[in-house]
Amino acid sequence: MRREIAVLGAGVLGLTTALRLAQRGHSVTVYEREAEPGGLASGFLVGRATSGPLAGQEVWLDKFYHHLFASDRHAISLIEGSGLAEALDWRRPLTVTLRGGQVYQLDDPASVLKFPPISLPSRLRMAAALATLKALPSPAPLEGRTAAAWLRVTMGAEAYQAVWEPLLKGKFGALAGEIALPWFWGRVHDRTARLGYVRGGFQRFYNRLAARVAERGGTLKLGTQIQRIESGDGGDLAVTFASVSDPTQSERARYDLVVSTLPTRLTCQLTPDLPAHYRARYEWGRAYGAHCLILALDRPMTASYWMNVNDPGFPFMVFVEHTNYMPPEDYGGRHLVYLGNYRAMDDPLFKMSKDQVLGAFLPHLSKINPAFDPAWVTESWMFAAPYAQPIVTTDYRQHIPPFDTPLKGLFVANMFQVYPHDRGQNYSIELAERLVRHLDERFPGR
Asked: pTM score > 0.70 for this model?
């Protein structure tokens, strides 16, 4: 039976859901607040490649750094199935840790055993603990425990203080001690040293997904914000929406089903008909915002791709030199650096202008490369996204909503449900596939 379905959000989760539903013959409309598909993972145009396989082509840069792991089979399959197999480039860039003013490789078992800032017994304990997490097929035995406490006991105080405490505090600030151990298991278990990237930017993939939805008869309403979701008179759902450029001119459309890929809290705010008992359990939790300052330099800064900043005093938690992973010629010869943060939504960083952030961040780059001069910076961009990183506490699992809601025809699927895995494209795609299978079971026949 053909149904009219609205999908709220055109991130990779929403686009995958919309594509699968359209392939099943349903009439699908996707609503997205931003001007381009991709959600939090979207990119922006930075010009044309000067040489190499992309020579002369328009190139996108991600607003927030990301890549694939070799274990990301759902994302790999969808990218290849979208005709971008040749654009998917696999490399093994260098990952390092800044500790005590020195840079050390720390991205495989051998480098763990050679890590000079901690003693050999601590290195052995750390290597054994990481191997245990990597081999553990499920985090079920780890439920109810915090990462900080387990790491401190299992690896010892020396390894915890040198490696893991700075990383947890860099990502979660004052809440670092509350983070659930299963989340940390996912970070270790899922990751590989070999990384994949869609040359020309992941935005090419999102644009291709959006085009595939349209080819199947789907409609994408970009630059459109949802104002309300409510029960219709005929057992359907009414969605009120408006253009971001003119929110006063509201429109209303009716659907048999609505799939919201928005945060559960936002879905609850938009849907007054959801009952109090549902809100009490699932309109819950805290999340930090993501912030990235991107610099275009006229020369390279370091030899590494990813640098965890484990020294105190830096205003950013990670230094990502993207063009030590992808070649500078893909970006017109620019050398591109991300300075990334996760912060509480009321943090002053989110209210600072780009010039203020540049003034606060650039002086610290000489601690990474003593030769750095601000004159190396030729361009800069700044992006922020609210509620990008859920705070995964030990009671988090109890508040993960099911796909179904008490409101007939309304379903939710969002980042909150990929637990214990960290947020990322692969698990969003896997979640979309599970949701569509669930809808097939709930509504058999097409």
From this structure: yes
